[in-house]
Amino acid sequence: MAKTVFRSTSFTLRHLVDSINRGDVALPELQRPFVWSNSKVRDLFDSMYRGFPVGYLLFWETGAEVGARQIGVDERDARVPRWLIVDGQQRLTSLYSVLTGKPVVREDYSESRVKLAFRPRDGHFSVWDIAIGNDPEFLDDVAALWNDFRGTESAFFTAYEKARGELDSSTRNSWGDAIDHVRDLQNYPFNVVELDSSVDEEQVAEVFVRINSEGVKLSQADFILTLMSVFWEKGRKQLEEFARGCKVPSVSAASPFNWYVAPQPDQLLRVSIALAFRRAVLKHAYSILRGKNLETGVMTAELRDDQFRRLQEAQAKVLDLTNWHEFLRCLERAGYRGSKMISNQNAVLFTYAIWLIGRVDHGVPLDRLRDAVARWFFMAHTTARYSGSFETQAERDFRQIDEMAAEIGFVAALNKVVDDTLTSDFWTITLPNELATSASRSPALFAYFAALNILDADALLSTGKVRERLDPAVISKKGIERHHLFPRAYMRDVLKVKDTRQINQIANMALVEWNDNIAISDDAPEKYSPEQVKSKTTPDASGHVVLDPTRLAAQEDHHALPAGWTSLSFPDFLAQRRKLIAAVVRKAFERVSQPGYAATYPAVQTPTNDEAFEDRRDAAGTVSLTDLFKSGLLPNGTILVPVRDSVDAVAEIDDEGQIVLDDLPFTTPSAAAKAASGASENGWTFWLADTPAGQRSLATLRDEYRSANVEPARPDDE
Questions:
Q1: Virtual torsion, Cα 606, 611, 614, 619, nearest 10 deg
Q2: pLDDT, tens digit (0-9, with 9 covering 90-100), for 656-712
Q3: Distance CA 448, CA 381 (A)
Q4: What CA–CA distance (Å, rounded) separates 64 from 87?
Q5: 79 vs 542: CA distance, rounded Å
Q6: Predicted TM-score of the model (pTM)
Q7: Could you say which DSSP state residue 147 is in?
Q8: Which residue from 614, 361, 581 is spatially nearest to 473, judged by alpha carbons?
């Protein structure tokens, strides 16, 4: 018979809160960010008030020695907690916030209180708002009942009778009993399942899955971050602060804000683990941080403390702002200007780990490191090196680079791997084949955009630069945009090509100025192209021409236009242009490798309001695109078109649930709608989605989501 790995006990709510305050129970903010809506917290208290069960809590004993202190902290109360919360954190966070009045940390790292009001007349809880705060029937904040019960109750009755008149004794007693019942919720019993400290993380994960009704799985990152909250909570908070700083610009001090990536704390942790231990497989990293010798299997507190000290030293390097921003210059040198051109964040983060290994462990000068790492990132991102089994690939890279660096040096090691990957066959066969797609966030497409940046290319038939189009702060559609060389309506009406993915293939798109795109309209290439060329090369009354022959030839070269392309069949045009695009990318990559090359870009626009960051935030408590995507109402590949025929735009839902328009991803319908129309729009009514039931507005899909009472598709504990 298998040994029982748990025991059951019971905690009152007050006991739970006191245990958290004493530090016996770890309630880390990052184990899972608080994602419950305030209305769900209200429903939890309503269930408790009516005597209904609200589920169990799953705790895991840390097994820490009595009196053990956290690493890097001198305060007396920074002791290691006895229990970790494995399941039930959302409920316990809700309860703790309401009882103590302390704020919770939301998904976007903002802080807010969960404030509930109570109406004694009918025992009704409500989320506080201004209207309720002005309603004398509501006790304004139930948290006050556990701090000063008599004073709070007296103040409520005084305010009510002043506004509405004196209560009779029977009503006053009835309402008083209801208020007293709310205070007594501190004695509400919670069933707690305690897992023994001898249980390893795999067993904990299995127990969690077996008893969690939603089938949520715990990741290795969950366990490592939880372990940090036990033995090095300060380090975990540093990760949180840095992650938040990457999203929100600071005008008062230096910050990690950037336009490339807004990493989660666990992603930053991966970089620290890579630098400290050359590990990317988090299962191994977790065992190391528990103090386990991977060769002998023996686990000791001394080894655990030593490993955490190594992690502490590495994390200081990872979160160093000078290191961070110097690394990001490598991406700019590689032609990548922001998140609009990043299809895989792993490529950024593991390349950062490699930059740190070169800088910290090998002492490579910044200028040499910048050149080599720019080439590495271009290679890694273009080849999707860190997709699929990315942990295994990353560890293989760390090991191979270290071994070769010992013989030929770090920079030579990087260059050798890059050259062995980007062979002649890659440029002439693999990359052209990768361009045979309409995917708007293809690594091959972004490699081409990066190449145009490196070559400082003009937009086609324009004096405007591609670099302007790829300014990471620009969200408006106006300016330089993508244009179908074989126009969409011409393909559909004349060539009878109905397949949207074929029409939108990368090789059929070019970057042009917005007003040129309007002028081109839907004419055949052999009609509009000569007219456009003539309008740009014919002198005006003063003898000025927009484009001279040399500049026009350079544009045709950069934009990979085959000779006589307007008279080619569409399939032949695509095949020839894919090869030419690959040749342009190769030429740009070779330029990155040249010693005299320097990436000089216009300064990024400074945002004047929150609009530029709308696609990097989710509004807590509302239905989002992510909810529709994960519920299956808006699956990957869904085509979106404007409800108004006067707006010419086609968007698509990508594999992350974002709206992609002209290669730009948006996580809110309104931001995408503004990019399409150039004006502020309600995106939920602006977009129509192609569904099996026909075209339906996003607002209709949102209403269906709500009416189905589907919980938001975010991490949860139940």
A1: 130
A2: 788 988 777 888 898 888 888 777 788 898 898 888 777 888 988 887 776 654 444
A3: 12
A4: 20
A5: 81
A6: 0.71
A7: T
A8: 614
Rounded-to-integer distance, Cα 105 and Cα 97, Å: 10
How far lies 200's CA from each of 218, 288, 292, in Å?
Answer: 13, 13, 12
Residue 327 DSSP SS3: helix
Number of H helices, E strands in the chain: 31, 17
Contacts of 187 (CB under 8 A, 6+ apart): 12, 13, 14
Q: Are 597 and 252 in contact (CB under 8 A)?
A: no
Largest alpha-carbon pair distance within the chain?
A: 97
Q: Which residues contact 273 (CB under 8 A, 6 or more apart)?
A: 224, 279, 280, 282, 285, 311, 314
Give every strand in the sheet of 189-195, ordered side by side: 6-12, 189-195, 57-61, 83-87, 25-26
Q: What are phi and psi of 234, to 5 degrees?
A: -60, -40
Closest C-alpha to 29, from 80, 102, 99, 98: 102
Helix (H, G, I), strand (E, B) or coil at 2: coil
Contact 28, 236 (CB under 8 A): yes
Sole residue written with tokens 């320097």:
598
| CB 280 within 8 Å of CB 395 | yes
CA dihedral of 249, 250, 251, 255, whole degrees rounded to 10: -110
Residue 223 neighbours by CB distance under 10 Å: 25
Tokens representing 683 are 């995106």
304-323: string of b/e by CB count within 10 Å (b at 16+)? beebbebbbebbebbbeeeb
Token pair of 99 as six digits? 């009882």
Residue pair 361/279 in contact by the 8 Å Cβ criterion: no
Q: What is the C-alpha separation between 331 and 705, in angstroms, rounded? A: 40
Strands across the sheet with 659-661, in order? 664-666, 659-661, 651-653, 639-642, 687-691, 694-697
Span 479-534, pLDDT tens digits? 567 888 998 889 888 999 888 888 889 999 998 875 655 556 678 899 999 998 99
Over the stretch 561-608, which tens digit does the pLDDT of each residue have? Answer: 999 999 999 999 999 999 999 999 999 999 998 878 887 776 665 443
- Close Cβ partners of 178 (under 8 Å, ≥ 6 residues apart): 118, 120, 121, 123
Decide if 673 contacts 682 (C-beta within 8 A).
Answer: yes
**Would strands 480-484 and 509-513 be described as parallel, antiparallel, or unpaired?**
antiparallel
Distances (CA, A) of 151 to 148, 157, 172: 5, 10, 16
DSSP three-state, residue 456: coil
Q: How far apart are the first and last CA of the chain?
A: 30
The band of 357, judged by pLDDT with boundaries at 50, 70 and 90, is very high
The number of CA neighbours under 13 Å toward the Cβ of 50 is 11
Among candidates 262, 263, 256, 268, which has minimal Cα distance to 224? 268
3-state secondary structure of 642: strand
Q: Check if the beta carbon of residue 450 is closer than 8 Å to that of residue 588.
A: yes
CB 447 within 8 A of CB 585: yes
Structure token digits, residue 485: 């060389």
Q: How far apart are CA 97 and CA 21, in angstroms?
A: 12
> 308: Cβ–Cβ under 8 A, 6 or more apart, which residues?
71, 231, 232, 289
User: In this structure, what token pair is assigned to residue 185?
Assistant: 């919720």
